[in-house]
Amino acid sequence: MGKTLFDKIWDSHIVMSKPEHPDAVYINTHFIHEVTSPQAFDGLRKRGIPVFRPQKTRATADHNVPTLDQHLPIKEARSRHQVEMLTKNTAEFGVELYGLGHPYQGIVHVIGPELGITLPGMTIVCGDSHTSTHGAFGAVAFGIGTSEVEQVLATQCILQYKPKRMKIEVNGTLKKGVLSKDIILYIISKISASGATGYFVEYAGDAIRNLSMEARMTICNMSIEMGARGGLIAPDETTFSYIKGRQFAPQGADWDKALAYWKTLFSDNDARFDKVLTFDAADIEPQITYGTNPGMGMGVTQHIPALDQVEEKERPSFKKSLEYMDLEPGSALLGKKIDYVFIGSCTNSRIEDLRLVADYVKGKRKADDVVVWIVPGSKQVEAQAIEEGIDKVFAEAGFQLREPGCSACLAMNEDKVPAGMYCISTSNRNFEGRQGPNARTFLASPLTAAAAALTGRVTDVRDNF
Amino acid sequence: MSKIFQHLVSAAVPVPIENIDTDQIIPARFLKATTREGFGENLFRDWRFDANNQPKADFALNNPLYSGKILVAGKNFGCGSSREHAAWAIADYGFKVVVSSFFADIFKNNALNNFILPVQVSETFLDQVFKAIEADPKAEIEVDLENQFIRIVATGEQENFDINAYKKTCLRNGYDDIDYLLSLRQDIEKYEGTRAFNF
Questions:
Q1: Considering only alpha carbons, which residue of chain B is nearest residue A313?
Q2: ipTM value > 0.90
Q3: Were both Cys, which of A106, A263, A344, B111 would link to A111 (CB 3.0–4.6 Å)?
Q4: In sequence order, what are the residues at sequence separation of 6 or more whose Cβ sits closer than 8 angstroms to the Cβ of residue B143?
């Protein structure tokens, strides 16, 4: 019987498989950042051991860096200390760091792909659940905890039980104004925030195949929001042409050999998945979330479920969620006044996202009472945006183009949405307090966020196309 | 942090909410420490305290009726961020066991790596546990790792739970994964020798 893409990659990375034991899986690339690594380096010190393969770990500072005045010392003492610890630890253990001020600095899941570090067939881990982003290249990539970061630093391996396999197919043609963010928000709203727990997902179907690499990354990025261990897409010509020529990608004869291997990375026709789900691209409209987990989403013109549409058992959690959001069951969100717009995060902060937003808002002006933050995913994205004049389009629209980092996606730095305020956000989580204590988040695509920035309200982006 | 778990009889603290994500367990703004200690004081920070840092009386952790080393929560506990700080906060607060009808994958790994036992039970049994605590806030729950069962002491209702044999051994003896992986050093180097590329 044939193998799935996931099985091909996983099986070729097993160092040791013993009955009753988790597999010891070799890790090709390990990304680290300032928040989930200091305790792991401490662990190595306590054991008196080095980083086993320092050249296979890359570091950047992203989670709690400020997004203004990055050339100045970080004001907040604890954030500064954490970033300094990363510099100290990477220097002491011989790990390459793309820290603040470095031209490669940025959100860890943006810089890996754009530098050509992320490649098909790799196993990739990082102490961050959105590591699934790298799956867009046909890599087995997943988030891990700090004890596991220590395992990888110490041995370049991780102990894991093999997850089950799920295939999610999306076929057909997307409607105008519908982006890959809408595809993934739609899928999560259909299968819930735990619908893929225990599974590794392969996304397939022509609607996925027709997406750009950056759009594919947005899909794989949010795999964790339905509980999946990770998500991946088989590499194809789109993948290969994206990678070719990037800084750390194979070159010359190595490229040819690599390409020959990468072309074997697909699920065989007779491969067996534990679960298969199929969706029709034509059913998807621009999405928005209304609740406090990413599964609580709907089409932007739809109504929040009424209480009697929610299973009785789930009503207490549903009510708690809507009370936090200060929204009524059964009500519509279209036309709802918003206060903030955040375009950024490892989900939607790449150059294509910024181009889409710039095209949409060119020559227009934001609503007066809305604050708009645009946070590019990396120094390279920022430089590209400036080169293309996108910064000027944003300035004319009254949008603020800030410096790279995770920013208001998790509000570890100063970029917090004030209590009680509503933010349309292109990030990945609408949990209580995620964008600041008592802040309220509506997740949406960059286009839906841009439309709301202009009107100051939840808007159907298709009205202005 | 105790590095061994074998058997426990304790009262339990009920938080009957579904989809409790790790941002609720420990909000991002408290992730700036560079050690593993001290996260317990901010466990469920924004559910426990209001904007003026006053305890919210209606939250279970502030209710003096409830105590014990077992946290009982609604389904899909620990979803969201991979932050191990969530497991550190739960351990630092003093919990040894979390009971739910469903756990997120990364949280489950993080909990086990910190010698917290995630006990996954059926929805029916979870309801029975919540009802037992409602009837008597001091109701004792017994958790036995060796025989893999959880029991409501007063009613005798009990259920078996799954745990893989490897992790069970780790928990019962205080072994951790790095000890095991370090013992594979030769196998790891041998594997590296078989690969032409780093993928």
A1: B18
A2: yes
A3: A106
A4: B7, B8, B9, B70, B97, B117, B119, B149, B150
